[in-house]
Amino acid sequence: MILVINIHQLWWMQDVVISQSPPSRIKSISYHDPMKRIQLLCDGCVRPITSGPIYVCAIEEEEEEHCNFVLHEWCSRLPAELIDHPAHQHHTLILCSKALGEFFGVFDCDICSLPCNGFVYCCTECVDFIIDVECAFLPKEITHTSHPNHLLSRVYQTRYLCRICEYSESGNYFSFSCHTCNDFHLHAKCALLIPETTVHKCDKHPMKPSYFPIENHMSDYFCEVCERELNPERPSYHCRDCMQSMHTTCAMSILQYETYDRYTRGVYQFVNVKFGGTYNNIEVHPHPLSFVQGIEDDGQCAKKGCHDRYQLHNLQFRMIFKCSDCKFAVHYECCKRMSS
């Protein structure tokens, strides 16, 4: 059971203001449960809601415009301002419920570079600086199984090689780095978002990250995907039942192929996106369009001269807008261009 508090009217008058009026109604709700295919994501941090208390929109289900707005209790208490944030120390960052000026509220975070449509911290002086809630509160120090003997500290630096994905970022990014071992760095997104298990079509068991030489490994180290030799001192995914291994980059490539994403972020491409909602624009399509992640049956983008950056035109696994009344469906980027 949860408290339903009428917050939406106040929400649009002033960001991050929650009504303290008495609850208007009590009702039950199904929490996030992947096994039952129930998804309940917070509109603030875009993370699963698995227990209460939470805030939801007070608009009733039987009303024509039902709203699925929902918040963790702690996301309702986020600070309205961040002063001296390590990624933007000279200006104050302001909390907003949506990224202003971004189509359908979707923006690319300036720290992790991932798309997001949750709450944002933005700079009122630098129009182009905007970060998601998760990146706004990255921990100063973490422990990681890839480097268990030392703490890893949050560092803002210009260029480094990540020990997990083996990619080097150019530009100003956070890393988690070891001050004892000067050459050990992890991307923040790799340290915090890389899956704990992955699968391969030739192995029925889940493969887990291994960061050290495998005990009782009787043969040479070779990747089951690219068939090249593995460095036992570098991270890899490994199945202890079948004694099979693969590079972390090859594991990412499998997921990237499945998601049509050529970059390492394909592993966790939409972890910060809450799908749902309706877009109405008669110049784009006469029927309402739903914001969803594409499936195989959605086929190819309906826009002539599709602007898909990978020239694949497929909609599967991508951010798309689709019509439930007909077969019309387009990429998010194509719909954005059609609306401008």
Automatic annotation (TrEMBL):
Asked if the keyword Aminoacyl-tRNA synthetase belongs to this entry, the reply reads: no
Query: What positions does the domain Phorbol-ester/DAG-type occupy?
Result: 204-258
Q: Which UniProt keywords apply?
A: Metal-binding, Repeat, Zinc
- Molecular function GO labels: metal ion binding
Q: State the superkingdom.
A: Eukaryota
Chain coiled-coil ranges: none
Q: Does the keyword 4Fe-4S apply?
A: no
**PROSITE patterns named among the record's database cross-references:** ZF_DAG_PE_2 (PS50081)
Q: Known Pfam families for this protein?
A: C1_2
Q: What is this protein called?
A: Chromatin regulator PHD family
Native species:
Helianthus annuus (Common sunflower)
